[in-house]
Amino acid sequence: MITRFTDIINGLEALGNTYKKSGNVMKILRSLSSKWHTKVTTIQEAKDLTKLPIRSIWQRSYKRVKTKEEEHSSQSYN
């Protein structure tokens, strides 16, 4: 997802459209499903979105999902 998003933004910037980093971060946050609503709200309130790298959001989200998947699979074996 992050690679595709970055490719689209880079392509649009090559055509002369410019976007603020905070706007890109908001687009990523809005694209998340409703189960992420609490986390999105926390990120918006706690972080300065102009300084928050998109990759950072993606990596943190990916780690949380992987951890939950691993917990779920280990519970199903018990």
Structure characterization notes:
- The protein has 78 residues and is an all-alpha fold.
- It has one domain.
- It is built from four helices and no strands.
- The longest helix is centred in the C-terminal third of the chain and has 24 residues, at 54-77.
- The radius of gyration is 15 Å and the shape is elongated.
- The model has no long low-confidence stretch (mean pLDDT 76).
Which regions contain 5 or more consecutive residues with pLDDT less than 50? none
Tell me the fraction of residues in β-strands, as a range.
Answer: under 5%
Shape: elongated
- Termini separation: 33 Å
Structural class: mainly alpha
Number of strands: 0
Q: Helix-strand pattern, N to C?
A: HHHH
Provide the domain count.
Answer: 1
Reported for the largest beta sheet, the result is: none
Helical coverage, percent range: over 70%
What's the number of helices?
4
- From the alpha-carbon coordinates, what is the Rg to the nearest angstrom? 15 Å
Q: If you average the pLDDT, what whole number results?
A: 76
Please write out the topology:
Elements (H helix, E strand, L loop, with lengths): L1 H13 L6 H11 L5 H10 L7 H24 L1
Summarize the structure.
The protein has helices at 2-14, 21-31, 37-46, 54-77. With 78 residues, the chain is an all-alpha fold. The longest helix is centred in the C-terminal third of the chain and has 24 residues, at 54-77.
